[in-house]
Write a structure and sequence with these properties.
Radius of gyration: 12 Å
Strand order of the largest sheet: 1-2
Strand content: 5-15%
Number of helices: 3
Low-confidence stretches: none
Structural class: mainly alpha
Number of strands: 2
Helix content: 40-55%
Shape: globular
Distance between the termini: 24 Å
Length: 72
Amino acid sequence: MYKDRIIYEGWRVSDFIANLEPTLDLIMSGRSYIKCERSKEWIKKWCMDNQPGYKKYIPEVVNYFVNKYVKK
């Protein structure tokens, strides 16, 4: 499964998603001071800026959040 793929120093795709999801849920629900756009580019940039220790694009992480918040 793609979520088990190791990305960085033992961190899997699922670990990055689990780390980012609570904060992004707050942002996307409007309960944060951070203003968001429901676009793939905004989510991609936000994920790269907020991933712990690894600031490169992880397509599986971004696609997970795009599917959750953008494609309705």
